[in-house]
Amino acid sequence: MSLTTAGRKLGVPTGHRFGMLRNLATDLIRYEAIRTTTPKAREACKFAEHLISIAKRGDLIARRRVERDIKDPLVIKKLFGPLKTRYQTRAGGFTRIFSIGNRAGDNSPMSLVKLIP
Known about the structure:
By secondary structure, this protein is an alpha+beta fold. It has helices spanning 14-31, 38-57, 60-69, 73-80, 82-86; strands spanning 33-37, 95-102, 109-115.
């Protein structure tokens, strides 16, 4: 997914934000669950769901589009292997956000993001 300026800015410069979303999506696909602040979780969900939708096509163009954002070969292999078959019949909504309260240090709202089974 080519990152655009649409969406939340999250209080960081553009390059940092794009890198952060790529890392959050990579970890979400790798571990199938991450814990982060709620605004970051919402943006990471949109980004990860778009990557999964592209990967469902499974062709070379889809692989190259995903490789622009995901740099870990094991995560790409997982995305085009078991996750592709898991979500092949599903039209969308591959992630779910659970609110888990506020962080103790600065009272930021925290969320748990999971890939649905």
